[in-house]
Amino acid sequence: MLLLFKSAAYRSFIVGAVSVSSACAISYSTSYTPGIPGIKESFDISSDTVVLLGLTTYMLSLAFECLVFASLSELYGRRPVYLITTLAFACSVIPLALARDIHTILVCRALGGVFGSATIAGGPGTINDVTSRRYRALAFSLWSLGAMNGPAIGPIFGGFVYQYLGWRWINWVILCRASVLAVALFLSKETYELAILRARARTQQEQTGDLRWCLFWNLYVGVIYAILFLCFVSYPIAFQEHRGWLPGIAGLGYCGIAPVSSSLFSVSPSSSAASSPVIRGTPARVRSPPRPPSVPYALGAILSPLGEFWFSWTAVATTTTAQSSSAPTYTHWIYPILAGVSFGMVNTLIFIYSAHYLAGSYPIYAASAVADNAMVRYVFAGALPLAGHRLYESMGIAWTGTLLGQVEVALTPIPFVF
Is the keyword DNA-binding assigned to this protein (predicted)? Predict the structure, then answer.
């Protein structure tokens, strides 16, 4: 891979701009959920499912358009795709903030997902363009840090903005962030050497044609990410409906997820050697031996179901009104919030590992390989929350979490085998 820029500061600027743009697009998906009560009140809607379609349409748009924009970035370059889509993303937020009915919200959310997916789809390719092998794991960790913290950051700032300014101002805040990012991307240069990549494309595709890594990692990451997004259904039930917290304070429940993602940022680069795959067709003299997943990643796979069980059985009431004439009592609030530490650890490690691993396996098609993974991830994350509220109502937090934990147990061997 050719390095087009010698300045380390400029390469850091590119990585930072793409990482923050990805975080903005992801946080916009979940910042919507704290404002759902306000939307229902504004438009006299009684069904939670109808309003939750705003989350689903956004995530499904992210899922399918990732493939489109990843391909476009490899045909026409990164910069024009980023500029056009970031400006379009900002424009799609304006009618949503001024919406007079739920239909406008759903359409604008879908459009926002379409245009917001560009930096998520092209980000891994951009990182491959501007970083050397020595610093690539560090750059991927930085990008993953923004993308993985986005779902947790969204409800935190969204909850406080909704509580003090109303649900429309959530969109105005996102508009300000998108405008700043558009300026940053405008100041960046093209990072993709199209002529060289086209000359090598078909040969490299034949050399890296083993799709097993994509198939199994797509399934695993999709399920884990979807279960993370179910937190944005279960947390409001556990903290707002059951414990009676205000939206802003309830949003702080996600603080268990975000800080651990930041702390693991320093761990992942040190284990980059353990996640370096063997590329088929690479000469034997330069080929690295295959290595199993490192201890942190394996630990993350094991902790995934444990965290789900932990949250499920500490978020429920210890006594109910049927057992006592007084109000139900709960375990201390710190216990279910600490379960978020496990969620944050698992999702960060798996997200970093899968992005770095797939990009290393398909270097010429890094953007497309990771975009394919993103499509599966966002389809799962967009579809599962629709059934989540009904599932938690019928089975309760404890037994729904137990069911999800059993699914995670069944998928645990994937990081060890692949």
Answer: no
